[in-house]
Amino acid sequence: MNSEIRQLQPQQLWNKFADLNAVPRASKKEERVIAFMKDFGSKLGLETIEDEVGNVIIKKPATAGMEDRVTIVMQSHLDMVHQKNNDTDFDFDTQGIEMYVDGDWVRAKGTTLGADNGLGVATIMAILESTDIAHPAIEALFTIDEETGMTGAMGLKGGLLDGKILLNLDTEEDDEIGVGCAGGVDITATRTYEVEETPEFKTGFAISVKGLQGGHSGMDIHKGLGNANKIMNRVLFDGFENFGLRISEIDGGSLRNAIPRESNAKVAIDAVHEEAFIAEMKELAATIKTELKTMEPELEIVVSKIDTPATIMDLGVQEGLTRAIYAACNGVYRMSADIPDLVETSNNIARVIVKDGEIKIGCLTRSSVESSKEDLANSLRAAFELTGCEVELSGDYPGWTPNMDSSILKVLDSLYEEMNGEKANVAACHAGLECGILGTNYPDMEMISFGPTIKGAHSPDERASISSAQKYWKFVLEILKNIPKK
Looking at 30, 146, 170, 186, which residue is catalytic? Predict the structure, then answer.
């Protein structure tokens, strides 16, 4: 199936991407891709290192005539977000990604594509393997676990790298040169509750929110996309207010860095209200779909009868839970006052689980301003603590402060305009790149981020532009030729 991908230009890039996508590589399950990358470096006869946390470093000397250039670090992350549509039969632990060409796009069949950050990894692999690409001395840094904690970047110790310039290949618009990014913190609210036997004369319903686009909880957070957890909570809140709906289970969302596309709940209501409840839910579903019709045309809110659940959650806890989720900020909290159109601070209510006497709510808060990140984290903490939850803040990582005077920025900015006849968009982004973290142990290293155009990252709609990959590849080759002298 991926033979079609291997014929695309530039073949060096797409062949390495196909090789990589044959290897399962979920965050925190990178054992196979680490072994794959170490084997790749060793077979090339290059110095290959695995550090204490699992990052892989492969070093390649400069090509002839480039020995007087600054040593560079080329960096991408090995892990990918694993998401699939509900009706897709696919096992990420055992299967390689099934890709196909759709016009100018490479897509995957019902799953995430892994272009984030697989195209960056493939780029570096192609250059390491090449015999005819001019480049300075390269330290290829392949980090792990970028998507669920950035523990690879956090665990990289100082002294392993000698490079003075870092090229991060994890930006998703080919006209953008990244010079800064947001930091983030994981917020987890938990509590237990008493499980009650469902009273007589109740009837059961399953409620499903599906068909949402989902997307990257940083790069897409400002687009007004639907959040399945917030929509579900609105439906449950309305059902309780009007019909005394009682919650048995909720299972919504998935990863913290993915805007939730789906949520499912099991509930019970008094049987006498059945017809009125169904009518109310249809009306509410139509209202929500109308509100979101522009951004979420495929949204479905389905209410169907099921066997009455055996148990429901404590009423007081249910009221507190639905109010807390209603009150909790989701989406943009503050726009940057200094950089036009940049989201400064946001939150994604990514995961809501209610089952068997336990509640767990997972959020990812991002900000390019540490004090604003702390402010929003405290706001969310307060909302959840008011309903009796214990709240843990973890996985805190710093943002990346722009350096508009760096020598590598001047190289990329000038080359982009020369090659494309227009200026690049030099910008900070609201995603969490690893540059800020890597800079804590390598404070003197200049850093820049760029990449090919990728849409729908962190969702099964993820796709990579073929024409953009060609444009990006030429840009990479010119950058390597123009690295400053020592």
Answer: 146
CATH classification number, 3-181+399-481, choose in 3.40.50.10700, 3.40.630.10, 3.40.50.450, 3.30.470.30: 3.40.630.10
Distance CA 397, CA 437 (A): 7
d(CA 89, CA 239): 33
User: Of 453, 437, 425, 454, which Cα lies nearest the Cα of 341?
Assistant: 425
pTM of structure? 0.77
Give phi and psi for 343, each to the nearest 5.
-70, 125
Candidates 117, 168, 181, 141; CA nearest to 53 is: 141
146 is catalytic: yes
Q: Does domain 185-397 have CATH number 3.30.70.360?
A: yes
- Give the span between the Cα atoms of 256 and 432, in whole angstroms: 12
Closest CA to 271 of 197, 196, 204, 198: 204
pLDDT digits (tens, 9 = 90+) for 263-280: 999 999 999 999 999 999
- The pLDDT tens digits for 338-394 are 888 899 999 999 999 999 999 999 999 999 988 999 999 999 999 999 999 999 999
